[in-house]
């Protein structure tokens, strides 16, 4: 990623008085880092917006502080925004050593269109919108772009292991098997079916009559007397 320059001045105005700086188009900031003494600085808000649009939080900014001979390699971190206007009101510059690895959360974006979403009304679920990596500052990717045009069926997904990056330079700190984005079948309301009523057992026509005819009846009297004579 190309490195860009940003001019800065040491800041003398501190505390609540920085409101005057913001009204004048100046953005209060601070520089911090490992073995670096914290330093309040200020930059032009317009200049910072242009630089940040090119670098984001992962690109190196060469911060040129007035009266300092060397530029400072920094990453733009911890942007504080006004809750009403959404404008940046303060920024932290993390000064890094270009020879030491840093841990940074890299944003994830999608590209293309999923056939499952377009043709089957599937729901696209973004499980991760960023992933942490470890790398030298100059090797940090600006962002990860995942192509979702290959997601054609329900429950298909793209995993961390599918993110394209030179893993010899960039170490993924997330589980390689973790899901980044997936498509799911839309949840449909299950219509409640009324409980089925079991039909009462109906006797076969004529069965009851056949069963009762002669059932429990004694044989005729003449038949009884004839049987008694034979037995005697």
Which features characterize this protein?
232 residues, alpha+beta, Ribosomal Protein L25, Chain P, RNA Polymerase Alpha Subunit, Chain A, domain 2, 2 domains, 13 strands
Can you put this structure into words, describing what you see?
By secondary structure, this protein is α+β, with helices and mostly antiparallel strands. It has helices at 18-23, 45-55, 115-120, 207-212, 221-231, and strands spanning 4-10, 26-33, 36-44, 61-65, 72-81, 88-95, 102-111, 123-126, 130-135, 144-147, 157-159, 171-172, 179-184. Strand 5 (72-81) and strand 6 (88-95) form a beta hairpin. It has a 6-stranded mixed beta barrel. It has a 4-stranded mixed beta sheet with strand order 10-7-9-12, with no helix packed on it. A 3-stranded antiparallel beta sheet has the order 8-13-11, with no helix packed on it. It has 2 domains: 4-99, Ribosomal Protein L25, Chain P; 103-184, Beta Complex (RNA Polymerase Alpha Subunit, Chain A, domain 2). The longest helix is centred in the first third of the chain and has 11 residues, at 45-55. Residues 189-193 and 204-215 have low confidence and may be disordered. It is elongated. This is Large ribosomal subunit protein bL25. Residues 6-93 form the Large ribosomal subunit protein bL25 L25 domain. One of its GO terms (biological process) is translation. Part of the 50S ribosomal subunit; part of the 5S rRNA/L5/L18/L25 subcomplex. Contacts the 5S rRNA. Binds to the 5S rRNA independently of L5 and L18. Residues 194-205 have a biased composition (Low complexity).
